[in-house]
Amino acid sequence: MKRKSIRISFSNNCLVKPKLQIIILMICLLSNHLFCMSIINDLCRLNDFNENKVIIKKKIFSQLKVRGTRDINKSILHNEKSALIRSKNDGSLPRYSLQLIEGSDAPLIDQTNPGSSGISHGLECGQVFFYKKNYHLFITEKVISADFGVDLTRFGHWKSSDGISWTRISTLKNSIKIPKNPRHAIWSPMPIYDKRNERWNIFYVGYEEGANNPHGRIFRAYSKAKGLNGLNGPYIDETDTVLSYNDTNKNSWEGKQGADSFYPFQVGNNWYAFYGSSDAASYWDVGLVTASSLDGPWKRDDKPNPVFTYCENPIVITLDKGVKFCVYDDLAHGISDCHSIGYGYSTDGVNWVQKYLSIPLPKWATCIRTPLSFIYEGNDIYIIYFTALTPGDYNGFEKVGRIKVKLVKD
Q1: Closest Cα to residue 163, out of 202, 135, 204, 121?
Q2: What are phi and psi of 407, to 5 degrees?
Q3: What b/e sequence results for 259-277 when a residue is b if at least 16 CB atoms lie within 10 Å of its CB, and e otherwise?
Q4: 247 lies in the same domain as 104
Q5: Which end of the chain has fewer beta carbons closer than 10 Å to its terminal beta carbon, N or C?
Q6: 332 lies in some domain
Q7: 272 domain residue, yes or no
Q8: Which of 84, 109, 134 is the last residue of a domain?
Q9: How confident is the model at residue 397, as a pLDDT?
């Protein structure tokens, strides 16, 4: 999802004393902008500042000592920040890391592809999955792109037999060209097959028109055709929303953007889903909801803090022995330094370890955006498709590339 430039500020209900606010803002002048924002958000959202002030002090003084050392700053941002949220590894969880095996020399889908006709500003947010000997891509196509919150979009279904050459199959859904309509801009189509009801489902985000009040909601649509062959739809919208910006039981960390992503995954007999929210300016966080079935109802977990911070659009798979693994859009480093892919893992679907993989920025791209997959190829090798901005920043054409990584179990 597009986002405006970030400005440094404390919220009106922040519990941090004014003198400490001034000290932190002074550090901002000497420091990494996104690191500064992470401190501010940590402090403002702590339930018990005294309990965590040792961690905050360590974080601040470490930053002062290594100012200008980008890689160390990133380590502080991710690793020590995880102590402030409920992502954890208590010793029972194996350690995983990713190693880059193959980079992205050229985009796989760009404006030269015949299927890109009618797409003005490229592709972003969706999923690539392997099904019936073919790769399938469900993706957001930006038909008309302007400022955040006023994009007209559609969902495209693409297909490839080799994972390299892609053909556009169909349009799955169009946004509604009516101001303030909840589906004025639709984003992040996430397909999943519901074995209980024997139908393909798509969970997706809908925004209203208006840069100041995007009012994000999560919707669910199901295929009219029953069975696995109903993948290409047509898809019928459920009447009710899955989650909404105006739900009365929202968690305290949710922002004015409303719900900005949704991805369900199964743990035992229950369903969990990552859902995202943001203030559309300074943070993008992800929490959990649960349900007994894909058709809901979905219940927020009522935790005071999100599972992941500076994260958007996680995609989850299951490894051996039930370990859950996800990749996501890593927003911790800002637009000026966005050549990383976030990932995390968990044994129970609730407590997660949060990490990132830094990769060389492809020559054809200016910023890595949303990962679209984590597809097993064999011998611990996985394929990550992703979208990336191109020269011209948000006025450029967002393209699709891919890398291969090795999953290492320490």
Answers
A1: 135
A2: -90, 115
A3: bbbbbbbebeeebbbbbbb
A4: yes
A5: C
A6: yes
A7: yes
A8: 84
A9: 85
Find the angle CA(258)-CA(260)-CA(261) to the nearest 5 degrees.
140
Q: In angstroms, rounded to a whole number, what is the distance separating the alpha carbons of residues 152 and 169?
A: 20
14 three-state secondary structure: coil
Task: Specify which residues 221 forms β-bridges with.
Answer: 202, 237
CA distance 390 to 394: 8
Q: What would the two tokens of residue 9 be?
A: 């500020």
Residues 118-127 have pLDDT tens digits of 898 899 999 9
**167 and 230 belong to one structural domain:** yes
Q: Give the β-pairing of 308-309 and 311-318.
A: unpaired
Tokens 């659009």 correspond to 313
Task: Verify that 39 and 164 share a domain, yes or no.
Answer: no
CATH number for the domain harbouring residue 320 = 2.115.10.20
Q: From CA 281, how far away is CA 290, in angstroms rounded?
A: 27
Report pLDDT for 332. 82
Which residues lie below 8 Å from residue 214, measured CB to CB, with a gap of 6+?
148, 149, 207, 208, 256, 257, 258, 280
DSSP letters spanning 146-212: -STT--EEEEEEEEESSSSS-EEEEEEEE---STT-TTSEEEEEEEEEETTTTEEEEEEEEE-S-SS
Q: Long-range contacts of range 224-233, CB-CB < 8 Å, 24 or more positions apart?
A: 225/199, 226/198, 226/199, 227/198, 227/199, 228/193, 228/200, 230/199, 230/200, 231/131, 231/136, 231/191, 231/200, 232/157, 232/169, 232/170, 232/172, 233/170, 233/172, 233/200
Judgement on whether residues 123 and 64 belong to the same structural domain of the protein: no
**Which structural domain range is residue 53 located in?**
18-84
> Are both 203 and 79 inside the same structural domain?
no
> Do 256 and 379 fall within a single domain?
yes
Chain-centre distance of CA 117, in angstroms?
27
- State the Cα–Cα distance between residues 20 and 26, nearest whole angstrom: 10
- How many domains does the structure of the chain reveal? 2
The stretches in the chain having pLDDT less than 50 are 2-13, 31-35, 37-38, 41-42, 44-87, 147-149
pTM of the model: 0.80
Phi, psi of 281 (to 5 degrees): -145, -50
